[in-house]
From TrEMBL:
GO cellular component: plasma membrane
Pfam family, any one: ECF_trnsprt
Record's keyword terms, sorted: Cell membrane, Membrane, Transmembrane, Transmembrane helix, Transport
GO molecular function: riboflavin transmembrane transporter activity
Chief location category: membrane
Species assigned in the record: Tepidimicrobium xylanilyticum
Chain ranges passing through the membrane: 15-36, 48-67, 87-105, 112-135, 168-192
Membrane topology: Multi-pass membrane protein
Lineage, opening ranks: Bacteria, Bacillati, Bacillota, Tissierellia, Tissierellales
Annotated signal sequence range: none
Protein name: Riboflavin transporter
Location in or out of the cell: Cell membrane
Function comment: Probably a riboflavin-binding protein that interacts with the energy-coupling factor (ECF) ABC-transporter complex.
Length: 201
């Protein structure tokens, strides 16, 4: 099992993680809703720098990029979701980049990168569907005094297949995470070989 080690905590590596986190923050600020998902789900590609960090510096580096990115976002933008959105972003992103990085970092081959990212997308989607169903959405609803039905209605307004709470998860949360994971995977594949030498210096 990959763990946080002394190499990850040296100054040079932490600077790299910080730079990746700032780039991730900029990408996070360029978020937008997708046509099939309620407005509280915003799409961005801020997981790309974290995934690159996970591949180049190790899985925990990717998690740290996600953590710093979300902390910076809270400091700069604040939160319209009481921190729930930022927590969800951290959890979903960390699951993805850690899983993908774990597969790739042990044996750095193109095949392992593909396998790692594919498994990462599936694990992320399954985990976030479960976490949203049982924890995140109920907590968000309770925090803001919203009935679950109102949140479902936000999904129904943009997606005709969303008719109840379970279908919100199945036809909005699941495809949202799959779509995001696939796009982040493709972007990372396109740019990783070009930027990884800089991080490995």
């Amino acid at each position: 099992m990959y763990t946080l080690n002394k190499e990850l905590l040296n100054t040079k590596t932490m600077v790299k993680i910080s730079v990746l986190a700032v780039i991730a923050l900029i990408l996070m600020l360029l978020d937008f809703p997708l046509w099939f998902a309620p407005s509280f789900l915003k799409f961005d590609i801020s997981d790309v720098p974290a995934l690159i960090g996970s591949f180049a510096l190790g899985p925990m580096a990717g998690v740290l990029v996600q953590l710093v990115k979300n902390l910076l976002n809270l400091l700069i933008e604040g939160s319209s979701t009481g921190g729930v959105g930022e927590l969800a972003n951290f959890v979903v992103g960390s699951i993805y980049v850690y899983t993908a990085g774990l597969f790739y970092y042990k044996d750095k081959t193109f095949k392992n990168a593909i396998i790692g990212m594919s498994i990462g997308v599936l694990v992320m989607t399954a985990a976030m569907s479960t976490i949203n169903y049982y924890i995140m959405i109920p907590f968000y609803a309770k925090l803001f005094g919203l009935p679950i039905d109102k949140i479902v209605a936000m999904g129904s307004a943009v997606n005709k297949y969303v008719v109840d709470y379970k279908s919100l998860i199945l036809y909005a949360i699941v495809p949202f995470n799959l779509f995001k994971g696939i796009i982040v995977t493709l972007v990372t594949l396109l740019i990783y070989k070009r930027v990884s030498p800089i991080l490995k210096k």
